[in-house]
């Protein structure tokens, strides 16, 4: 009886040791999300840059940047030359993104940009395919009392 | 009695050897796994450092827009400053500790090298270049801003560009 107990304790000890090793190994496997952070940084800079881009849409005061144009689009207003602000916004963003994230002869498989104003989508641009290997950035700002969110995602 | 004791000692020895082997094999396994990722980690670290260097440069007083274009902007490069730096690139050759700094306009696209003669109707500002020591470049998106004149009024014009930094190659 005593010998059987000793054998059982030995067996349990071995099982515990092996389990600890397996846990350490799984810990190593899981803790490696660094690269994604570096690459998302590029997407963040891109979103910051596009919001500052000066478009050819004017109001009575100045040429509007993309972030001001988003506000104008949300209010469904026109530029000074009577072009519809949302059309100018879409055209500019389409051209900027296609020049910056080339889908031909590159690792980029697709991209999507969604602009939400007061949580309502006002513009969606999508090209190529969405894959599980992606990077992205979200930029939020409030202008003239309107809360805007720009979600950008690139798939590789 | 003596044989039984010998058997016990033998059993204990085998057990100790087995456990030691288990530890050694598990240790080797972990070491192999860790070392296999070292090269990848080094590359990632280099990539990260290069990207941080680009961002640091974009936000340094020599390049950044500061508050010249309204509020303080991140990742905003003053195009006029870049052009002035280009003219004085020899003075700054050792200042940044890199082999080259270029600013390439992405949108609107223009491939012409900027000179005082064609500025601002150009797309590539080579701020500094030491062709002999250039390594692979790292880049990041920036907005490239300058003051423009429209019908007698001055306004801020920002375009999309990439700031490229070439680290010194290891020789």
Can you tag this structure with a few keywords?
heterodimer; A: 156 residues; alpha+beta; Ribosomal protein S3 C-terminal domain; 2 domains; 4-stranded antiparallel sheet; two-stranded antiparallel ribbon; 4 helices; 6 strands; 47% helix; B: 171 residues; 5-stranded mixed sheet; 3 helices; 38% helix
Write structural notes for this entry.
The complex is a heterodimer of chains A (156) and B (171). In chain A, 47% of the residues lie in helices and 29% in strands. Chain A is built from 4 helices and 6 strands; from the N terminus they run H-H-E-E-H-H-E-E-E-E. Chain A is of the alpha+beta class and 156 residues long. In chain A, helix 3 runs antiparallel to helix 4. Chain A folds into 2 domains: 1-32; 40-155, Ribosomal protein S3 C-terminal domain (2-Layer Sandwich). Chain A is elongated and about 95 Å long. Chain A has helices spanning 2-30, 34-52, 66-74, 85-100; strands at 54-58, 63-65, 110-117, 120-128, 134-143, 146-155. In chain A, the strands form 2 sheets. A 4-stranded antiparallel β-sheet of chain A has the order 4-3-6-5. In chain A, 23% of the residues are buried. Chain B is an alpha+beta fold and 171 residues long. Chain B has one domain (38-167). Chain B is 38% helix and 26% strand. Chain B has 3 helices and 5 strands. A 5-stranded mixed β-sheet of chain B has the order 1-4-5-2-3. In chain B, strand 4 and strand 5 form a beta hairpin. Chain B starts with a helix and ends in a 5-residue tail after the last strand. Chain A binds chain B through residues 10, 14, 17-18, 21, 24-25, 28, 32, 34-35, 38, 41-42, 45-46, 48-50, 52-54, 62-63, 65, 95-96, 99-100, and chain B through 15, 19, 22, 26, 29-30, 33-34, 37, 44, 47-48, 51, 55, 73-76, 106-107, 109, 140-143, 145, 150, 155-161.
